[in-house]
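debug: dumping io for the single-chain case to check the tokenizer round-trip. Nothing else runs in this session.
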Amino acid sequence: MTAPYDPARNQPPAGQSPMPPTAHLPQVPAGQFPPPQAGQSAAPMSGHLPPPAPGKRPAWLVPTLIGVGAFVLLCCGGPLMLGLSSGDSKPEAAAVSGDAPAGKSGAAPTGTGPATSTKPASPAAPAPAKKTEVSEPAKPKGPGIGDKVRGGDFEFTVKGMKCGISRVGNDFLNKKAQGTFCRVGVTVKNVTKSAHTFHADGSVSAQDSSGREYEADGEAGIYGNSDGQGFLDEINPGNSVTANVYFDVPKGTKLKTITLDAGLFTFAEDAVVTL
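debug: decoded output
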């Protein structure tokens, strides 16, 4: 056993400097230490430890780390980016494929489509019957120029018509039209058993295609007939008178019908002649 340290025993004699506790150990130059024995620590005996020597990195470490990082990026990042890009392009591809016309090969499309219905088609509704237009029977044509018509006590025959006459009469006695005169030749025959008076003014009228009615001009009738025919003619039974009846109408007017008045004191209908 080692004896305990006694400070009184280690005191130097008077007049000598104290000795360190390690003076009895062999002195080793600084920086040189003997190798440690088995079971002993490699720490130096002095109180300050020398700084450890910096270690060197292996030369292959940095290239290896770079290669591993690149490999991981290619293996994991590449498929991920490819999947994202392909996912964005799928809707456009689907839209294009939906709008594209079917091929001419006639092959049935692949994939799960709607099942074809085997239900028999319902019979088509009968087409509506076409309405048969029934044409109205043509109305009998009324009497015209040259036809004999009955009007009251007289039988009338329209001989003809001429328009565009600006003046009726001679150089001394005449009548000038406000517009233009239309001259209508009429033969009047008494078909009763007694004498009757015929007066063109008030008994004969004319109508145009617009429905406007024109009265006969009595003064023009006096100048337009050699013996004043048609002006208060007394006609015996069976006799007839031919007179020119004048109508003052606007220029360009075309007369459509002539109406022969049957008179006020008769139930007979008026006679209408189409021109």
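debug: round-trip ok. Confidence is low (pLDDT under 50) at residues 42-46, 93-109.
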